[in-house]
Fold:
Amino acid sequence: MKIAVLGTGVVGNAIGTKLIQLNHQVMMGSRTANNEKASAWVKQNGGNASQGTFADATKFGEIIFNCTNGAGTPAALNQAGAENLKGKILIDISNALDFSKGMPPTLFVCNTDSLGEQIQRAFPEAKVVKTLNTINCNIMVNPSLVPGDHDVFVSGNDADAKAKVTDILKNWFGWKTVIDLGDITSARTVEMWVILWVRLMGVVGHPNFNLHITKA
Amino acid sequence: MKIAVLGTGVVGNAIGTKLIQLNHQVMMGSRTANNEKASAWVKQNGGNASQGTFADATKFGEIIFNCTNGAGTPAALNQAGAENLKGKILIDISNALDFSKGMPPTLFVCNTDSLGEQIQRAFPEAKVVKTLNTINCNIMVNPSLVPGDHDVFVSGNDADAKAKVTDILKNWFGWKTVIDLGDITSARTVEMWVILWVRLMGVVGHPNFNLHITKA
Structure:
């Protein structure tokens, strides 16, 4: 499958590399067509890896992974273009973390709104599915790094898109439990969780942990 | 031990009843000395149970459990009185849930502040420990209702107070894992978790669930 990965940071690298390992054709998108981090990633990942602008990659991809930093997401998706996103599944992994006032971070949108909702409103013809923002990027594509049962979530308005993303999470990335939280307004719940995640990282001492919902 | 339970709702009832079962003397506090719900609770719980105003109960208690609704907490604690809270452990279980605009609820304070922090600022001589707000009240005092490993958190500025509350959680209420998140600013992380908790309750279909942090 042709897949776009928007963003050249650690999340984009982890997702893109996993997709290449799964034999997909992956274009990494960034602000410029010749981004150096994207070039380095392409060099490491062989013939199925390519790079381009956010618009190039989004046009190329049948599915789009938004791996941009939350603060840069609106600009990145505006460059990606509504026409290129139209009708496609947009998997949103971004977080609204604001480190500008030091640690601990706060969120620049939360409670009554979320990045996931903002993206869905800005691109009503894209099928936005929020997921994977609740764990470290290494665990996103290799959940077995954390032992035992643990969970990932999906939020979105389009049931078919959520079903497809759930299939990707389970059968491509290896997740056993995918919890459907409801429509895209539930993106705010998993974006708010990240504030607890950051504190827990300090307590645990590393990012290789996750939550498991256990029930009676 | 003499203990104050502030609040006559389901949380105050669950905590108060458990403490009575553990042979403590418990005064349930409310706005008026003759609150009907408190009277009913006293009647059910025998000679070690009593009732009074927020001030009466707080004066009586060596440890104070704040089980009031978050929106009513500031007024309740003002009635309790700074002099009566001085030097005492104040276990804060309140949540900032705002249901005034319907479901799903939002928080009336979050992200850059929390109820726990507001209480600590308002009563600097109380030793505020935020805990137990992350689960349903039945699980608070009977964690074995949920099978398997699952966790509760403490947040607060006073290490000795957190150690005492951790002892209460483990040896009185039966918690196996108590995670210390840090100072009282970490109260915002567990208060924000509740927004995810509410959605999960809809997915799970009942409130008898909790989270477990699993790590590499």
